[in-house]
């Protein structure tokens, strides 16, 4: 069940046998999205989703250990070719580095998690609220303002800003006037001029 504001999230359980381990977001998304996997969930030991959920560095638990079990949402991502890609943490689109990267032009972050690496991009992001947090940086945002926002990102102090539009959605389509480089859960997905996003609620279980 999708969590509501103020609700407790997660249960203490004994880790079942045979649960796969994911050390990063892309691996976690692939395991949860694989319909041929008959698994009770996935142990996560790293990645931005794990950080959002309070994972600290320690060895992976063993079967029978007491762990916390959390339901999470997946995000279905479709690019120009129409192929579907699963995401658990984030989808980032910006100009290719030869064209200025995120320092020039429009930048969009679609967040299911709170963090991108050390940056607290979505301070209110939650992986089980049934929503994607969209952060849309205007192409007109100055280099100086981008630098200041970048410096504030680790503490989540980049908002509010008149050149960063934010919204929370269950589904949306993003369109760009030129193809942008796209990364899904930190892995390059090529480039696209159109990104379709939709939330798949309660799509999997993770153990911490």
Structural class, from secondary structure content? mainly beta
Please identify the oligomeric state.
single chain
Distance from first to last alpha carbon: 19 Å
Biggest β-sheet: count, sense, barrel? 11 strands, mixed
Number of helical elements: 3
Write the element-wise H/E pattern from the N-terminal end onward: EEHEHEEEEEEEHEEE
Helix content bin: 10-25%
Average pLDDT score: 91
**Global shape:** globular
How many β-strand runs?
13
Radius of gyration: 17 Å
Low-confidence stretches: none
Beta fraction: 35-45%
Describe what you observe in this structure.
This protein has helices at residues 25-33, 48-52, 143-152; strands spanning 11-14, 21-22, 42-44, 66-78, 84-87, 90-94, 107-111, 115-116, 119-120, 132-137, 164-169, 171-184, 187-207. With 208 residues, it is mainly beta. The strands form 2 sheets. Strands 1, 2, 3, 4, 5, 6, 7, 10, 11, 12 and 13 form an 11-stranded mixed β-sheet that branches. A two-stranded antiparallel sheet has the order 8-9. A hairpin with a 2-residue loop joins strand 12 and strand 13 (187-207). The radius of gyration is 17 Å and the shape is globular. The two termini are 19 Å apart.
List keywords for this structure.
eleven-stranded mixed β-sheet, 3 helices, 208 residues, mainly beta, two-stranded antiparallel sheet
Q: Secondary-structure map with pairings?
A:
Blueprint: E1 11-14, E2 21-22, H1 25-33, E3 42-44, H2 48-52, E4 66-78, E5 84-87, E6 90-94, E7 107-111, E8 115-116, E9 119-120, E10 132-137, H3 143-152, E11 164-169, E12 171-184, E13 187-207
Parallel strand pairs: 2-3, 3-13
Antiparallel strand pairs: 1-4, 4-5, 4-13, 6-7, 6-12, 7-10, 8-9, 10-11, 12-13
């Amino acid at each position: 069940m999708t969590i509501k504001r103020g609700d407790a999230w997660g249960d203490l359980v004994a880790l079942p046998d045979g649960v796969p381990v994911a050390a990063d977001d892309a691996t976690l998304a692939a395991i949860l999205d694989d319909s041929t996997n008959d698994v009770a969930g996935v142990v996560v030991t790293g990645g931005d989703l794990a950080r959002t959920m309070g994972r600290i560095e320690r060895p992976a638990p063993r079967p029978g250990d007491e762990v916390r079990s959390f339901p999470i949402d997946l995000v279905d991502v479709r690019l120009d070719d129409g192929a579907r890609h699963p995401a658990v943490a984030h989808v980032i689109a910006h100009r290719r580095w030869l064209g200025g990267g995120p320092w020039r032009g429009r930048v969009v972050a679609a967040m299911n998690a709170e963090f991108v690496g050390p940056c607290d991009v979505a301070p209110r992001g939650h992986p089980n609220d049934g929503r994607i947090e969209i952060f849309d940086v205007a192409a007109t945002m100055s280099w100086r303002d981008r630098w200041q926002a970048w410096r504030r990102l680790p503490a989540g102090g980049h908002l509010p800003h008149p050149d960063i539009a934010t919204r929370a959605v269950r589904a949306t389509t993003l369109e760009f006037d030129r193809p942008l480089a796209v990364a899904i859960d930190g892995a390059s997905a090529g480039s696209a001029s159109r990104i379709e996003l939709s939330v798949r609620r309660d799509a999997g279980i993770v153990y911490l």
